[in-house]
């Protein structure tokens, strides 16, 4: 990896890791607000008793993956980015399934698609040899 690519990777890794930790922390402490902001139906966001637990589980995963990205040096980060991309794809599939049943708004499905596309682009870019 050239020094420019290494420097680019370092900035990307720190940005994605920090963002993941901030979003995870917000979801950990305000799960209903985050769920509503991401397009979960208002009645489900406010009334579903299981929702806070499920959002907090996802938040804990976001925090863990963000921390892993922050502490993993560039040469060893390949596995971390692969796992992150896999989890992002699974999240998107869950959102798209929920969209098909009418449980989330279109904006949530679109946002999931954008996040997945950006994650895929980033993984492909940093894994090229």
TrEMBL record:
Q: Which organism is it from?
A: Geodermatophilus nigrescens
A Pfam family this chain is assigned to:
DUF4267
Q: What is this protein called?
A: DUF4267 domain-containing protein
Return the InterPro entries for the record: DUF4267
């Amino acid at each position: 990896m050239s020094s420019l690519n290494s420097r680019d990777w370092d900035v990307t890794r720190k940005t994605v890791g920090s963002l993941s930790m901030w979003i995870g922390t917000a979801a950990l402490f305000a799960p209903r607000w985050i769920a509503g902001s991401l397009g979960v139906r208002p009645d489900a966001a406010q009334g579903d008793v299981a929702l806070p637990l499920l959002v907090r589980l996802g938040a804990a995963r976001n925090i863990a993956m963000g921390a892993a990205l922050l502490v993993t040096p560039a040469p060893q980060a390949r596995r971390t980015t692969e796992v992150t991309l896999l989890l992002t794809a699974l999240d998107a599939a869950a959102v798209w399934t929920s969209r098909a049943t009418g449980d989330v708004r279109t904006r949530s499905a679109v946002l999931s698609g954008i996040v997945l596309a950006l994650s895929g682009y980033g993984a492909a870019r940093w894994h090229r040899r």
